[in-house]
Amino acid sequence: MNTDLYAPFLEATRSVFQLMLDLSDIEDRPSDTFPDSDETLDIAIGVIGDLTGEVIYRFPVTTSVNIVNIMSGMEVDSVDEFVTSAIFEIANIISGNVLTTLSGNDLACDILPPVQRAGDDSKSYEIKMACCLSTSAGDVCLDIRLNPSKG
Amino acid sequence: MLWKDKYELGVPLIDTQHKELFQRVESFMQVLRSSASWEDKVQRVNETLEFMKGYVVEHFRDEEAYQASIGYPNWEEHKKIHTEMVNYVVQVSQEYEKSGFDQQLIQQFAGKLLAWLINHVASEDQRIATYAIEKGVAGNEH
């Protein structure tokens, strides 16, 4: 199950970055050297359905700003409501694309609106993995925490 | 310039409307992100919002008519995405008026609109063009 989920999330992130930001220099990177949460914009997207849990998207501040600069063609230098909302939408789009892939594998899931917060470490998950991508706009990390629904 | 040629569908009416939308969103963001005071921005922000409410609906209607004219099979799903966006614009607009023209709300709206529009035109709408080319119905719009 772990391997099955890792690929769709990486692929969806890769494809959204390519399509929306024209970034093609996207590579996997180890997740253990990722910055602390006080230097990142953490976005939680709840998942319900055949899989239940959440996916945390961790965008370092520099990555968030760079992404919005590319999309808007404007010089934005800090994370504010405008930047946060644009990054929320990107996380939403990536998650939506993953669900489409999963539905092709007979996994019916839905996503909840993005919320700005770190992951909840008090819960236990059967599927728990982190994967990161490195791009010329900066790094981005995904923390996947899901449980297959019973029944 | 937010618009990129790769966003073109090859349908003159739809492409013209997309360019107009991108241009409006761009100038909306420029006003919103300028260093002018919020009081000075409010009127132009309100005008753009009013334009968007009308133009988005008109464009979606024309795009849906084009999908129908070429027998695009995913029209229902596409229409649902359009409806959700229209509802979102209306909802934000109502909350914005109710809040007494709250700047934070509009900054959030602009961020979402920017990412949504790029993804929708570059991804969802391109599927219509791909279908039209594959089925040999490109250029059949009325």
Automatic annotation (TrEMBL), chain A:
Residues 44-126 form the Chemotaxis phosphatase CheX-like domain. Gene3D superfamilies: CheC-like (3.40.1550.10). GO terms for biological process: chemotaxis. It holds the Pfam family CheX. Keywords: Chemotaxis. InterPro entries: CheC-like_sf, CheX-like, CheX-like_dom. This is Chemotaxis protein CheX. It comes from Aminipila butyrica.
Automatic annotation (TrEMBL), chain B:
NCBIfam families: bact_hemeryth (NF033749), hemeryth_dom (TIGR02481). Residues 10-130 form the Hemerythrin-like domain. It holds the Pfam family Hemerythrin. This is Hemerythrin family protein. CDD domains: Hemerythrin. InterPro entries: Hemerythrin, Hemerythrin-like, Hemerythrin-like_sf, Hemerythrin_metal-bd. One of its GO terms (molecular function) is metal ion binding. The keyword Iron applies. Transmembrane segments: none annotated. Belongs to the hemerythrin family. Keywords: Iron, Metal-binding. It comes from the Bacteria.
